[in-house]
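User: Hey, my collaborator sent me this sequence without any context and asked if I could get a structure. I don't really work with proteins. Can you help?
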Amino acid sequence: MRTRAGIKIDAFLERYFPERRVFLKSDNDTRFIRLRPGTQLVAFAGCSALVAWAIVATAVILMDSIGSGNFREQAKRDQNTYQARLNDLSGQRDTRATEALAAQERFNAALKQISAMQSELLQSETRRRELETGIEVIQTTLRNTMKDRETARTQLADLQGSLDNGGSGLVQTASNSAPMDFLAEALSRTAKERDQVILDAQDALLQADEMQQKIALMQDQNDTIFRQLEEAMTVSVAPLDKMFRNAGMPTDRILATVRRGYSGQGGPLAPLSFTTRGEEPTTDTLRANRLLNQMDRLNLYRIAAQKAPFASPLKSAFRFTSQFGYRRDPKTGGRRMHSGVDFAAGLGTPLYSTADGVVTHAGWSSGYGRLVKIQHEFGIETRYAHLSRFGVKVGQRVSRGQRIGDMGASGRVTGVHLHYEVRVGGKAVNPMIYIKAANDVF
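Assistant: No problem. I've predicted the 3D structure and written it out in structure-token form, which is a compact way to encode the shape of the chain:
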């Protein structure tokens, strides 16, 4: 039996969903289907739910499309900003390289000038010593001449006294007049020699004063040259020292390692010494030796920089597609450590060694595809993965900037790119540490 509530519900539904009949007519018979109010309500609710789901799904799709468009635009803007930053860094690197080259040229010119000044200083010192010796000889000669003149005057006085005591007849004799003439001539010649010695001594003193002034001027010039050289060496060495420290490389140990490998002695950078009598070196000698030590340090830095990967493996245009560290795996979607950095460019883009070293692997490696490994000094190894072609072979010695292969998409990849790694003592480190450190110098 139907309850009163059920009757009321049917009456309410009859108001909005009256009972309907659908007739199905065939050739021999006619049938109909009764659509009760409850059935119509269920059908209406289902259609409404379907329409609502379609509206919500459409809205979600539209919002996702709009969001994706905004993300792409933001990515393009970020890419343009990053490309502009890369261009700016490249310009700064070129400017630094030009400044370093100009500083090196100025340093070489100043070194030539100081060598010439040192030669002139040695010649001036030699001339000064010769003049001092000449002055001493002249003074000795002058003293001897003065003594001879006084002796002659004494003898003349004695002779005149003897003539006065011997009588007037002796004065008129030829034997007495001859010594008087000889003595007068000797005195006259001695007086002329004395006057000439005095003039020579005065000229020598004037020349000595001029030499002293020239020596003082040359010392001022040497001080200026030394100061410029010291500033140039400071400007040249400081960026290299900063580059190694930013890369986390202990400079003292690195330089000691390079020095052991280049231990030959002699040549133009040998310490200066201008005395063979064990005297204390002069201030200029100490400054020159300090400069030579700095030049030696600069040369060691240059050698060490060639042996460490302070460079980019690409010279063509590229973009970074993945940084060093943990990231979402492009294949599995899980979180995974990325032990290098990825550079994306066109297929066949040339790849270059970032430092001097020896190729220890050039072949296929699981995941890496075509892989090149290069062993460098200081326990550093670089890896270049996913190559399309090899340009080197195992055991080959390569230099910085030498082409080692071409970019490709071999191995476990999603597209054409280079996977570049730097390992120190077998442990992967961030390659951007070396690349960014080199941007301050090269």
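In plain terms: Confidence is low (pLDDT under 50) at residues 167-176, 264-272. You can pass these tokens on to your collaborator as they are.
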